[in-house]
Amino acid sequence: LPHGGMTDTWVKKHRLIYIGATRHPFILSIRDGTVDLPAFKRWLGQDYIFVRAFVPFVASVLIRAYKKGDESSGDMEVILSGLGSLNDEIAWFKQEASKWGVDLSQVAPEKPTQHYCRFLEELMRPEVDYTVAMAAFWAIEAVYQESFAHCLEEGSKAPPELKEACQRWGNDGFGHYCSSLRNIADRLLEKAASGSVPLVKVSEDVVSKAEVTFLRVLEYEVDFWNMSCGTA
Ligand code: HMH
User: Fold this and answer.
1) Which residues contact 189 (CB under 8 A, 6 or more apart)?
2) Cα 196 to the chain's mean position, in Å?
3) Closest C-alpha among 85, 197, 181, 168 to residue 136
4) Which tens digits make up the pLDDT trace of 102-122?
5) Which of 54, 63, 116, 145 can pair with 178 through a Cys bridge, CB separation 3.0 to 4.6 Å?
6) How many angstroms does the Cα of residue 137 sit away from the middle of ligand 1?
């Protein structure tokens, strides 16, 4: 939902790549019911690996929020709720995998998964700014929210056995959570851009680093979908 923040500017400026990540052929195939089941199973196994790596990343964002010491911002509560949903997500992946006969202990990470997980590790380094990490966190969640919400919109022919997956990220509660992440990212970006920090160059650097990070997230997401389709 556009609301005039920095993230909104980025989405408009990089519209084509944003659409590439949120309206990928894999997602469109779920929506129109033509999805190839081996592709869905591949996505399931790889995303389980990704989500396990995403937990420590989100935990690192939580630590940054805590260290900022800005208790009244409410950032910690939002991030903590995200860790709570990841807990449910991991349980869901295990249940879903057994439903589809996927043995998660036998799934090896493919190249796009390895690269995406390595990127998350880079974002956990202490020199990475809270603003940059938060922008990445928002973008990672927003791509899934927008993609799976599209599979639930009017006219969807998504197979009933995949509806639960679509609900997981496409439901209104998850949408609200993504808006909260977006508000935090926009607030931090605005603060960095406003030059409230004496070293203006440094804070401009944070904003441009955050934008580059946003674009990298979109690229990793497209690679991840391509891998799931088997077109990587
Ligand atoms: C690849 N991106 C990928 N997997 C996810 N589960 C999310 C984003 C959102 O949690």
Assistant:
1) 5, 6, 7, 131, 135, 207, 210
2) 29
3) 181
4) 999 999 999 999 999 999 999
5) 145
6) 10
Distance, CA 134 to ligand 1 centroid (Å)? Answer: 15
**In the structure encoding, which two tokens stand for residue 157, read together?**
């022919």
Buried b / exposed e over 55-84, threshold 16 CB at 10 Å, is: bebbbbbbebbeeeeeeeeebbebbeebee
Q: What is the pTM of this model?
A: 0.95
Q: Which are the catalytic amino acids?
A: 221
- Please provide the average confidence, as pLDDT, over all residues in the chain: 94
Distance from the CA of 221 to the center of ligand 1, in angstroms? 8
Residue 72 has pLDDT above 60, yes or no: yes
Distance CA 133, CA 54 (A): 12
pLDDT higher at 53 or 201: 53
**Is residue 201 over pLDDT 90?**
no
- Please choose, from the candidates 171, 158, 140, the residue with its C-alpha nearest in 3D space to the C-alpha of residue 53: 140
| Average pLDDT of span 43-61 | 98
Q: Which CATH superfamily groups domain 6-227?
A: Heme oxygenase-like (1.20.910.10)
Please give the C-alpha separations between residue 217 and each of 24, 65, 66, 121, 138, in angstroms, as whole numbers. Answer: 14, 21, 24, 13, 10
Q: By alpha-carbon position, which residue is closest to atom 2 of ligand 1?
A: 140
Closest ligand 1 atom number to CA of residue 140 = 8
pLDDT, average across residues 157-168: 93
Which residue shows structure tokens 């202990």? Answer: 105
